[in-house]
């Protein structure tokens, strides 16, 4: 997908307007893809792979994702696809199947293309032993062309409770140059309530070791809305985190869905902060991180101004994919492991969630794909628009229309008309040749993107009957 270069926004700071937050705050997609994963259809794996092969961009570099589902301990808030176990011998059969999948996709899609981005997610990828991590990377190197100059973006999620300085050295030697620490909250009472106790001294020591080893970007994950959190307690967590000075921060909203995610049944509803408290926490978080010098990237993400993510946004080169915000928008994504989602050409496809079913499918049919979608021309147009807005908060409509060979105002006439309320409320500005998300609208970007989402529109029309 091509991006549209625009001059840097004069003001990247979001503005919190309580009445607008209340008016437009509703459930909606996070747009790590368009169409979103909920819009994928059940498809036969070999059919969708043929579609992918036909639309492959042979000149595009690769992004690789590997899902490692294992965790030693359950975190009660977690909604990830995971396997809770202390039996490390369960790793071997999973890795054997992962190697089988690596070979399968490399044969079809590698083509000597360079891997510019690589990510291990989970679960807890560092559930693997140092030897197993070395083995996995050796298999990947046999099948794909990895860079050895440390200029690529190779990252891994780590659990500070189980990672040692020696493991960090192994990861650095293997070519990883970015780390994501699962922090969530530094308050001991909150940590106990979610079954994730990790002293901040342990985190600080690992952080220092990672910097000494030359990891060039370190992310901290935080969650607001956890049990026993208050605006004051989270403000203290934030000060502790700011003092440690990570390069990036992801601040996620906890969604309490115990009927869908069994571990959340350990969390008492009465211990959760009220919706108003959650809004207060988020407002303080956004304003405090701005004061501390972090650039608001979008939604839950913040980065130091000299971080590649922040620079890419200022230069009009930021992108978004299934791994979130990224600087590697020109890559095609091959994702391996249970539940992982790939994007090849104009095709998305997802693996089975259940590890056993994923493993059996690899044996029986060579792939574990359960659903996906082949993008239409309209899908690609809307994907380009939503990606541009969610990454850069503005769009040159004339250039966009010329790029996609459409009359922008005619093609999106229905959507532009639906934006009248957002315009009147000062969330968005539309003038000749440009569409700009104003500072109060940046916190509500998902609400704006939903108006350009034809799948959401169709669902609304299907849910309600016509009034006449």
From TrEMBL:
Involved pathway(s): Porphyrin-containing compound metabolism; protoporphyrin-IX biosynthesis; protoporphyrinogen-IX from coproporphyrinogen-III (AdoMet route): step 1/1
Domain Radical SAM core: 56-282
Pfam family, one: Radical_SAM
Cellular compartment(s): Cytoplasm
Catalyzed reactions: coproporphyrinogen III + 2 S-adenosyl-L-methionine = protoporphyrinogen IX + 2 5'-deoxyadenosine + 2 L-methionine + 2 CO2
Keyword S-adenosyl-L-methionine: yes
Uppermost EC category: oxidoreductase
Top-level taxonomic group: Bacteria
Entry-linked CDD domains: Radical_SAM
Cofactor(s) listed in the protein's UniProt record: [4Fe-4S] cluster
UniProt KW Transferase keyword: no
Cofactor binding, note field: Binds 1 [4Fe-4S] cluster. The cluster is coordinated with 3 cysteines and an exchangeable S-adenosyl-L-methionine.
Record EC number: 1.3.98.3
Keywords noted in UniProt: 4Fe-4S, Cytoplasm, Iron, Iron-sulfur, Metal-binding, Oxidoreductase, Porphyrin biosynthesis, S-adenosyl-L-methionine
SUPFAM superfamilies: Radical SAM enzymes
Alphabetized NCBIfam families for the sequence: hemN (TIGR00538)
Described purpose of this protein according to its UniProt entry: Involved in the heme biosynthesis. Catalyzes the anaerobic oxidative decarboxylation of propionate groups of rings A and B of coproporphyrinogen III to yield the vinyl groups in protoporphyrinogen IX.
Recorded family membership: Belongs to the anaerobic coproporphyrinogen-III oxidase family.
Subunit structure: Monomer.
The protein, known as: Coproporphyrinogen-III oxidase
């Amino acid at each position: 997908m091509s991006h549209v270069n625009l001059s840097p926004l004069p003001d990247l700071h979001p503005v919190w307007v309580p009445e607008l937050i209340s008016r437009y705050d509703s459930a909606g997609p996070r747009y790590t893809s368009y169409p979103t994963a909920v819009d994928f259809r059940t498809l036969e794996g070999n059919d969708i792979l043929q579609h992918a092969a036909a639309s492959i961009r042979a000149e595009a570099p690769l992004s690789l994702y590997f899902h490692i589902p294992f965790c030693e301990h359950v975190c009660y808030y977690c909604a990830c696809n995971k396997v809770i176990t202390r039996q490390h011998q369960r790793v071997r059969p999973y890795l054997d199947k992962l190697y089988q999948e690596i070979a399968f996709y490399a044969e079809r899609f590698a083509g000597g293309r360079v891997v510019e981005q690589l990510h291990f997610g989970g679960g807890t990828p560092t559930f693997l032993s140092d030897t197993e991590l070395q083995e996995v990377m050796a298999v990947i190197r046999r099948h794909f062309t990895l860079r050895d100059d440390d200029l690529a973006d190779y990252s891994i999620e780590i659990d500070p409770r189980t990672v040692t300085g020696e493991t960090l050295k192994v990861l650095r030697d293997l070519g990883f140059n970015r780390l994501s620490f699962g922090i969530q909250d530094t308050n001991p009472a909150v940590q106990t309530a979610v079954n994730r106790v990790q002293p901040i001294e342990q985190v600080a020591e690992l952080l220092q070791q990672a910097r000494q080893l030359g990891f060039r970007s370190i992310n901290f994950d935080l969650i607001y809305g956890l049990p026993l959190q208050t605006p004051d307690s989270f403000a203290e967590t934030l000060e502790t985190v700011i003092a440690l000075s990570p390069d990036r921060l992801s601040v996620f909203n906890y969604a309490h869905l115990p009927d869908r995610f069994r571990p959340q049944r350990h969390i008492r509803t009465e211990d959760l902060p009220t919706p108003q408290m959650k809004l207060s926490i988020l407002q303080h978080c956004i304003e405090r991180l701005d004061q501390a010098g972090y650039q608001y990237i979008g939604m839950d993400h913040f980065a130091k101004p000299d971080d590649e993510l922040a620079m890419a946004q200022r230069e009009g080169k930021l992108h978004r994919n299934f791994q979130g915000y990224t600087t590697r928008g020109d890559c095609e994504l091959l994702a391996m492991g249970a539940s992982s989602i790939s994007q090849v050409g104009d095709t998305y496809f997802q693996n089975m969630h259940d590890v056993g079913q994923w493993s059996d499918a690899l044996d029986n049919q060579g792939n574990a794909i359960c659903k996906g979608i082949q993008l239409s021309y309209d899908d690609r147009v809307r994907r380009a628009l939503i990606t541009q807005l969610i990454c850069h908060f503005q769009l040159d409509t004339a250039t966009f229309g010329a790029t996609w060979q459409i009359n922008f105002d005619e093609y999106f006439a229905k959507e532009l008309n639906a934006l009248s309320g957002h315009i009147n409320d000062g969330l968005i500005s539309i003038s000749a040749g440009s569409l700009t998300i104003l500072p109060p609208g940046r916190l509500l970007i998902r609400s704006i993107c939903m108006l350009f989402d034809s799948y959401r529109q169709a669902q609304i029309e299907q849910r309600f009957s016509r009034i006449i």
